[in-house]
Write a structure and sequence with these properties.
The chain is an alpha/beta fold and about 350 residues long. About 45% of the residues lie in helices and about 15% in strands. The chain folds into two domains: about 150 residues, 3-Layer(aba) Sandwich (Rossmann fold), CATH 3.40.50; about 140 residues, Rossmann fold (3-Layer(aba) Sandwich). The radius of gyration is 21 Å and the shape is globular. The C terminus is likely disordered. The chain binds iron/sulfur cluster. The site of iron/sulfur cluster has 13 residues, from helix 3, helix 4 and helix 13.
Length: about 350
């Protein structure tokens, strides 16, 4: 019988599922993935971590608990410290294996290889450790990783190809309003966690853009001009995306999805908002927590879209007093007459 490896459908699953799944399958494992997030996932996760943990982490723990029903031999919970040579992943993600092992719930053995490109500059030890419960044949492990990497790259390219031609050219055709949904992938693609925001925006007539529709190179390029290098991979992605998107011609808006209790979002989000404010691009900041009331979200989205659509013909320069940052260090707060329409934030 094949060894059964469980992967929680949460956090970096949304970035690397194809890579991880293909890798373990090629090494002969049966990969088990938890189901879609639901209320029970959140309840289970809430019981396993401290209240202060952010919502995506609580949901991650809920998924690990739900995976136990499928009786995996191992759980794959890598310690992702850094995936590139100059930036880090969030500390809460780095600590996941430790929090799981320290918890009261009995868990199967963890496969917890460390990915730390800052200190090692390569993934050799990560691969050895990841594949060690299945084989000690290094060549087999490397081959499996290479194929898995190609599959993940092909998938990433697919998302990119849809929009590559429009990145610096004209916006997509049609009357839909270009709307960037900005945030971590696990916030954008977990429909329970984000109260189905993608479907809502689509139904409200938006042409949705997401971070993976901009190439890594163009994102890197646009943030080179920042006075200081960004310390976090997630932060680079968010700021690079918002800068790429701002180059699209014509009216557009940005919906920023952040997590309550997230240190990275609290100031990377603020940097993104200041940039948008300066560029005159309307934005809406939605902070996700454990509340699941959909009416509040619906009202805010409607108001935001009405604001963009109704004010455009009048070329209004209104800036909401609520959304105006106090003491904007860049000195743009409250300057009227600069923008085509307002840079307003709803929280
Ligand atoms: S980056 Fe923010 S939302 Fe993501 S795990 Fe870390 S604290 Fe939570």
């Amino acid at each position: 019988m094949n060894i059964r490896i469980g992967i929680p459908r949460a956090l970096l699953y949304y970035n690397y599922v194809t890579l991880w799944k293909t890798f373990f399958t090629l090494l002969g494992a049966e990969v088990l993935i938890s189901g879609y997030t639901n209320k029970l996932t959140l309840d289970l996760g809430r019981d396993m971590v401290v209240d202060e943990a952010c919502l995506p982490v609580k949901i991650f723990f809920g998924h690990t608990a739900q995976l136990l029903e499928q009786k995996p031999d191992f759980l794959f919970v890598p310690r992702m410290v850094s995936v590139e040579k100059s930036a880090y992943i969030c500390p809460k993600i780095i600590g996941l294996p430790d929090i799981l092992e320290a918890g009261k719930k009995e868990m199967p053995a963890l496969i917890k290889p460390t990915m730390n490109m800052v200190s090692t500059g390569n993934i050799d030890s990560f691969l050895r450790e990841a594949g060690s419960c299945l084989t000690t044949d290094r060549r087999k492990i490397s081959r499996a990783w290479k194929i898995a990497r190609q599959e993940q790259n092909a998938e990433d390219r697919q998302a990119l190809d849809k929009s590559r031609s429009t990145e610096i050219g004209a916006a997509r055709t049609g009357s839909k309003l270009p709307m960037l949904l900005l945030g971590h992938r696990y916030n954008l693609y977990d429909d329970f966690l984000n109260l189905n925001i993608r479907k809502r925006l689509w139904q409200m007539g938006c042409d949705l853009w997401t971070p993976e529709q901009f190439s890594e190179e163009s994102k890197e390029d646009t943030i080179k001009t920042l006075p200081k290098a960004i310390f976090w991979t997630f932060g680079k992605d968010i700021l690079g995306t918002v800068r790429c998107f701002s180059r699209l011609p014509g009216p557009k808006g940005v919906v920023i999805i952040s997590s309550f209790g997230c240190g990275i979002d609290s100031f990377i989000g603020n940097m993104a908002m200041r940039y948008l404010h300066k560029a005159g691009i309307p934005y809406l900041n939605i902070t996700l927590d454990e509340h699941s009331g959909e009416a509040g979200l619906e009202t805010r989205l409607e108001a935001f879209l009405d604001m963009i659509r109704w004010r455009r013909p009048f070329n209004e320069d209104h800036i909401s007093s609520y959304g105006t940052p106090l003491g904007d260090p860049e000195g743009y707060a409250g300057i009227h007459g600069v923008y085509g329409y307002s840079a307003t934030s709803y929280q």
